[in-house]
Amino acid sequence: MTPATHSTLFPQGTGSSPYPATPSGADAVLEGLDPEQREVATALHGPVCVLAGAGTGKTRAITHRIAYGVHAGILQPSTVLAVTFTNRAAGEMRGRLRQLGAHGVQARTFHSAALRQLQYFWPKAVGGSMPRLVDRKIQLVADASAACRIRLDRGELRDVTAEIEWSKVTQTVPADYPLAIVKAGREAPRDPAEIAQLYSAYEALKRDRAVIDFEDVLLLTVAVLQDRHDIAEQVRSQYQHFVVDEYQDVSPLQQRLLELWLGERDNLCVVGDASQTIYSFTGATPDHLLDFRTRHPGATVVKLVRDYRSTPQVVHLANGLLAQARGRAADHRLELISQRDAGPEPVYSEYGDEPAEAEGAARRIRDLIDAGVPASEIAILFRTNSQSETFEQALADAGVPYQLRGAERFFERPEVRKAGMALRGAARFGGNDSLLDDVVDLPSQVRAVLSGEGWTSEPPAGSGAVRERWESLAALVALAHGFAAARTGATLSDFVAELDERANAQHAPTVQGVTLASLHSAKGLEWDVVFLVGVAEGMVPITYAKTAEQIEEERRLLYVGVTRARERLHVSWALARSPGGRPSRRPSRFLDGLRPGSTAAAVRSAATASGGIERGRASGGPTALRRAQRTPARCRVCGRTLTDAGEMKLMRCEDCPSDMDEGLYERLRTWRQDQAVRSGQPAFCVFTDKTLIAIAEAAPEDDAELARIPGVGVRKLNRYGADVLAICAGREVAGDDGDG
């Protein structure tokens, strides 16, 4: 089994190291990869699309892919550009590539890569100095509103700023904004003509002040590469192999930039999961991922569905959420298969009001910490940041340390910067520092230096700024222990160099506190225990989600929240906002049929993808499927050996003709839906689509024939066998209303 995909920076009592040994060669890079991950790692030529479900080791697969290519001499590190969407993700990728010995590979965000190129080529393409880049555009928007004599409060300023950002990444100019939002089904936060006016004034102000914003970095880079073929060719000669992570989040502007980087070549590997598309409000769209095979008919498609993160119980809930989904992304959902041992069932809790919900979560968390669960391995996830305060107060009252996700970056915190300067000074002039007179080993030296900055062996009582400062220093102490254990003989200077490298890579150590985060900011993270709070109608889905696609994005957002949990999952909601309020809320519709005692919603049958590899053919011929061997079986039509689980259920190749009785299949589907409603579970938990097809094709006449069909185990045979055989024989099922 492949190791779990997460790695703790400071393992508790395991003796394992956060700094694994560098692989000795190309073959060593492949050790520990599962068959699908290995396929990703070795598919180094032509277009490759990796459809990777949550927790299936996508970062592991693509970093090992790059490292394998480097160690095998197929890829030159300086010619590889790996792009993703956050500094944290890019930093993690750089760190993993360093550990794998793939030094010199560029791993950056789209904006970072574009800015680097723009700065380099500006004198040649435009001349003079590049305009100053503004970090925050909200003040410019405020100045634009003043110029237009339109009054905006702080919330309205944020909304208009978001609309300007969306317009730019979708390549919409001010004059086209009103029509563009209608076409996109987007609801403007105020009069569209007014926003277009503000957008135009904002652009004029930027020109007058000779500044550019982050979206301009992409737009200007695209313009340079389009207009200057000599510069485009220079970039293409530098970068010859591209990897794009989180491809479902690519905007039209980023896709255009990627196409210009590529030119006529096809050395591209994209990785994504349409079921984790949760940023469409920023212009992101999964269409580029879903249309990849259309644009690249010869592409190799690898599907990762082995979930190494979460227990079967968590995975079952995640699959159940998507089983009820609709739309194009749902048609390409990946059904995860947990590779972990069984864990506890998700816990569902209903409270009278939000403070009671927060107090209940804080009590459970206090008990978990007392039982030995590290606070840093627990998270509370909510739909909106405004929900945070109630839970912050409850945790503080319970004496539970916490950290807010999305606050200052670790290495930008004042206490961390100050501690870094103290450590750097001690490394240079330690011989004259009395604090270090009686200490020899690295961890003791770090503790001694940081004691002068406020670190103590025991944390301060309570919460707030003092506790947060101590947590930051304690994280540095813990990092020193891990670094010293991995690097025998490491000095204080070595440790300072490691901190500098981590700061540059945005690779922060873990602060020992419960994480409070919105569902959006939790993307890409994971914890042992997750509390999903406020899972009620009006919050999940959010009130302003009106269209079918907006509702589906809310469902995907909850799916992302569920799949953050490794072992334990707590789902809760409150019937009222405040004590004494009218208990008018109800649990989220997304939990219907999944939580105990609820009735399943009508489930539309959607295509699901099992893990494996699909090899495209440029000639447009039939796709050849190759799967990992499981149990010997042969197609009853053509005699080919079957290895795919879905084909083995059917006992035939997907492409071989079916002799299914369509009428029988429809009767079985109707019966299955009735069973699902009665039992309060998704329809696929009764029988999967493939199993139903296999039954309809075989039309079994007795228990023995039915039992031979894969997917019909002893338990289901005992529970459903009599009904299924009656339907196959054309008889009425006992208790049926006769409609089937």
Automatic annotation (TrEMBL):
InterPro entries: DExx_box_DNA_helicase_dom_sf, DNA_helicase_UvrD-like_C, DNA_helicase_UvrD/REP, HRDC-like_sf, HRDC_dom, HRDC_dom_sf, P-loop_NTPase, UvrD-like_ATP-bd. It catalyses: Couples ATP hydrolysis with the unwinding of duplex DNA by translocating in the 3'-5' direction; ATP + H2O = ADP + phosphate + H(+). Its cofactor is Mg(2+). Residues 31-311 form the UvrD-like helicase ATP-binding domain. PROSITE patterns: HRDC, UVRD_HELICASE_ATP_BIND, UVRD_HELICASE_CTER. GO terms for biological process: recombinational repair. GO terms for molecular function: 3'-5' DNA helicase activity; ATP binding; DNA binding; hydrolase activity. Residues 658-738 form the HRDC domain. ATP binds at residues 52-59. Keywords: ATP-binding, DNA damage, DNA repair, DNA-binding, Helicase, Hydrolase, Isomerase, Nucleotide-binding. Pfam families: HRDC (PF00570), UvrD-helicase (PF00580), UvrD_C (PF13361). Residues 312-567 form the UvrD-like helicase C-terminal domain. Its EC number is 5.6.2.4. Residues 1-25, 606-627 are annotated as: Disordered. GO terms for cellular component: cytosol; DNA helicase complex. Residues 1-19 have a biased composition (Polar residues). Belongs to the helicase family. UvrD subfamily. PANTHER family: ATP-DEPENDENT DNA HELICASE UVRD2 (PTHR11070:SF69), UVRD / RECB / PCRA DNA HELICASE FAMILY MEMBER (PTHR11070). This is ATP-dependent DNA helicase UvrD2. The lineage of its organism: Bacteria, Bacillati, Actinomycetota, Actinomycetes, Kitasatosporales.
